[in-house]
## 1
Amino acid sequence: VLAVSRRRRTVKGPVTLGIDVGGTKMLGLALDTSGAVLGEVRVPTPSPSAIRGLEGDRNALLEAMAEVVSRLAGPLRSSSGLSYLPVGVGVPGLVDDAGVLRFAPNLPFGQGLDIASLLSERLGGWPVVVDNDATCATVGEWAYGAAARVSDAVMVTLGTGIGGGIVSEGRVLRGANGFAGEIGHMVVDPSGPVCPCGRRGCWERYASGSGLGRLAREAAHAGHLAAVVRLAGGDPEAVRGEHVTQAASAGDADARAVLVELGWWLALGLANLANILDTAAFVVGGGLVEAVRLVLDPVNVAFGEMMEGRHQRPEVRILLASLGETAGAIGAALVAAEYGRRKAGT
Ligand SMILES: [Zn+2]
């Protein structure tokens, strides 16, 4: 368990900073080598502004990251005498090995931005490593969370979309360019709904928060889900995933049935991944964790039925993430630490 403390404490080993850049907010943490969180800072992620323009938006994004760094580093540097701290940043989208955000449907004004170089420049040359946000969350859960004791795990973050990260044979899979782990865009229905990535029927259109909202609105328009529609203020079109989870937690059977349907789609993708990767465990995290917890039994049943050779192989466990919203920032700090060790040749 990680100790979160804003008080001055004994720092164990080098400190690294991690920033998780979300669509609406950034969370920054300072981490020492024992995994203790020494400081925590939150700032809003700048939203695009027509007045500021694209270059202005990009500058605002880098400026917000620099602000997180300076607020985290200030007290640590004065007490430790360090001249700089390595910085890891997790961002939504495809990040190449050089730290450039190549494709970012969920942070469009950041697309093409060389975050590693530009943030490093802004910080006066401090080392900056940039990685995909879900890959960072995977590193966090693998180091200190639900996947801490497995060599092969896949993290599945269920939010508005689905992010992922793959640990295989004891290391994080990054692929030829650093883009590996985009599990949310595995197509499960070529004639399905359109995805922000430009294709149809991606897994994240079904087994995510937005997928849950869509499944629920379809049911509501067909005259079902009375309790859920009431929670949404009486308008079937206003139904969101959180209304379903709320009603199901309160024992509403119709709402639970929608969650079971969501769970079936989740199980379908997990079984595909398990068949390809021979993983030992899945770690399910993100905003939909509570929804999944409610239907974990039917998810396990559906998952088992879809596994190849299910009776002839060890069980693949489906675990719930344990670091919550801090996983990405913790992982980003660890990615920076790993980079530092690689540079030092140790
Ligand atoms: Zn897609």
## 2
Amino acid sequence: MPELPDVEGHRHLLAEHVAGRTVRGVSVPDAEILVGTTPQGLGRSLRGRQAGDPVRHGKWLWEPFDGPTLVFHFRMTGTLAFGADETPDPEAGDAVLLHLDDGTLRYRTSRRLGRVWWVASADDVADVTGTLGVDVTDMGADRLAELLGHKRGGLKSALMDQELIAGLGNELVDEILWRAKLHPKTSVGDLDRDAVGDLHRRLRQVLRDSIRAGHVPSGPTWLNGQRGSDDPVCPRCHAHLDVGQVSGRTTYRCPREQPGGAL
Ligand SMILES: [Zn+2]
């Protein structure tokens, strides 16, 4: 599933291949994925316009075209690709293609869950994204402490609340809590300043390594590597992991190192 590190990779792709280029035309093989305009309207709006610098905030990404702006969300299966090939491949999930003066950008969503929104200007992006909290990559330890200080309830739910902190998804949060040795249902009010400081250090480390990899890694030292396994075990202490639902999301924790009761 695309998480912030994947979306940051897509931002890099836009910055490298799309920013500064001019739109020659569009193809929309799957009009249901496009929200806010029609395929014809998209072509009329973007043709001849130059792409500006892309912006990522949390798991949202947008690309302004000197006014009109495309907002991308990748949900379970969305992705962006750039290349010389201009031919849509609907079987592969190609939904929206922008033909630029130097190649084609394609938005692909193989299970048709992702969306591309058109808005008239970058000022209208929040109409699509809703209220977003501070981007997690811009958040220092003091800010995390301040945000959690206003929050009640379980820690995992708080960290995944996009209106509080934008950008932490299910895989990232499980990884961070496992490294911080905190139970996902730890009451936010029970964390002292030292615990928040340690949580923030783990968060920065997981984000840095994940962004560098372009996804949440699943190697032998990552909890994420146990996700989906028939018999998941803790990569550190080899205890059998506890798997359950927290806030409706499949959650993994080590019962030995993240004590506090079954999920
Ligand atoms: Zn363990």
